[in-house]
Specification:
Blueprint (H helix, E strand, L loop, with lengths): L5 H22 L3 H5 L7 H10 L14 H17 L4 H18 L6 H15 L19 H34 L2 H4 L3 H7 L8 H6 L2 H21 L3 H22 L2 H11 L5 H18 L6
Length: 299
């Protein structure tokens, strides 16, 4: 059942929506420079890209006064509603097309996190990702037919697994691409990436990359882990180990290189791999530990 992943899907929905909301607010002061009529990416190329993508009917007039600001505000509102599961799948579809239009208007400012959002959002919309962390008063909650729920369940299940497969594809083919690079083959890629001025977030970067063992170990282990993730994440005995390594990797990327969006969106996808039953076990363990350390009330 797709309900086995509803908690993780809901958590990922909140994270994805939150990142889109953050980006929209971040872009707002620079809206005209990034997306306006005279933005760094030519408006005519945007129109051509929209038509070639088959969505020419959705061409937005970014050249109009305050049009860019309005578009970002609408995107921010849609992202906020998606976070809270307001509007359900309808809002999800609207948000998907909004980020597609934004990407086609100026893809020069986007990074790997935007691609991950784009390829996983359709699966997230179809899957059962609206069951938790939602804002919907019970008195207006929609009641679905049991028959419809049974018929839709296989579709939602396929979408949940489809999202996880997409994550595996991202890591596997990223690892394959790295294996073709000379720096990754000779074990020095970490040295150069951590020392690039734009990504050198801490003074520790220089100190760490002076250690040859650290450079070689992190370079090769990154490639091996990315290749192995697509296979080991499906087995109960290895799933949490490989997910734990992924958290360490992306937190490290965030701390030492300040690549935040990509790190958080990838960590967000990990929640989907954890079943509702496993979340229940963790919740029960936390409650038991809390009871053990609870301070007795004074007599």
């Amino acid at each position: 059942m797709s309900r086995e992943f509803t908690i993780g899907l809901s958590i990922y929905r909140v994270i994805l929506g939150g990142l889109i909301l953050k980006n929209s607010i971040f872009y707002l002061p620079m809206a005209d420079a990034l997306f306006g009529g005279n933005a760094i990416y030519d408006l005519n190329l945007y129109v051509l890209d929209m038509r070639l993508s088959g969505i020419g009917a959705l061409i937005y007039p970014f050249q109009q006064p305050f049009a860019s600001q309005l578009f970002l505000l609408v995107t921010a509102v849609a992202a906020g509603c998606f976070m809270l599961a307001i509007g359900g799948r309808v809002v999800g579809v609207v948000l998907y097309f909004l980020i597609i239009i934004l990407k086609l208007r100026n893809g020069l400012i986007l990074d790997g996190s935007d691609n991950v959002m784009q390829v996983t959002l359709p699966f997230l919309i179809v899957a059962q990702s609206y069951n938790y962390f939602r804002f919907q008063p019970k008195r207006i909650a929609l009641r679905r037919s049991p028959i419809w729920s049974q018929l839709y369940q296989p579709v939602a299940t396929a979408a949940a697994y489809g999202l996880m497969v997409q994550v595996c594809f991202v890591y596997f083919f990223t690892g394959m691409e790295k294996m073709q690079g000379e720096l990754w083959q000779n074990g020095t890629a970490t040295y150069y990436t951590m020392r690039v001025e734009e990504f050198r977030a801490t003074e520790w970067n220089i100190w760490l990359t002076k250690n040859h063992f650290f450079v070689v170990l992190t370079t090769y282990s990154t490639v091996i882990w990315e290749q192995a993730f697509a296979f080991l994440v499906w087995f109960q005995r290895t799933k949490f180990f490989v997910l734990g390594l992924g958290v360490l990797l992306h937190v490290g990327i965030w701390v030492f290189m300040r690549i935040d969006n990509f790190s958080w969106i990838m960590i967000g996808t990990y929640f989907v791999f954890v079943t509702d039953t496993e979340y229940g076990v963790v919740s029960q363990w936390v409650r038991q530990r809390t009871k053990r350390v609870a301070v007795p009330e004074a007599a």
